[in-house]
Amino acid sequence: MQVTEAADAKSEMAVGELAYWPPGTAFCIFFGPTSASFGDVPRAVSPVNPIGHISEDCSELSERDHNEPIVIEAM
């Protein structure tokens, strides 16, 4: 199933926001600046579909190995 860009798709995100990136078919967790950021604000390279946010401090994600699994649970 192909997911398209949603009406509320955006590039500038907040720390802790979760999104789906249709062009890259990827799930995104924004926890800090990205290569597309201007300063400290997380930014996607192209618009993403917001799908939720992490309700707790997510600053420790920047210290994790990129291959280390994480668990996200709906509340």
Report on this model:
The chain has 75 residues and is an all-beta fold. It has a domain at 7-46. 0% of the residues lie in helices and 31% in strands. It has no helices and four strands. The chain has strands spanning 10-12, 17-21, 26-29, 43-53. The protein has a four-stranded antiparallel beta sheet, with no helix packed on it. Strand 2 (17-21) and strand 3 form a beta hairpin. The mean pLDDT is 91.
What is the count of β-strands? 4
Instruction: Write down the overall geometry.
Output: globular
Gap from first CA to last CA: 26 Å
> Biggest sheet: strands side by side, in what order?
1-4-2-3
Order of helices and strands: EEEE
Helix content: under 10%
Number of helices: 0
- Estimated radius of gyration: 12 Å
Which structural class fits the helix and strand makeup?
mainly beta
Beta-strand fraction estimate: 25-35%
**Uncertain stretches of 5 or more adjacent residues:** none
Largest sheet: 4 strands, antiparallel
Mean pLDDT: 91
Question: Brief overview, please?
Answer:
The protein has 75 residues and is mainly beta. The protein has no helices and 4 strands.
Structural descriptors:
4-stranded antiparallel beta sheet; single chain; mainly beta; 0% helix; 75 residues
List the topology elements.
Blueprint: E1 10-12, E2 17-21, E3 26-29, E4 43-53
Antiparallel strand pairs: 1-4, 2-3, 2-4
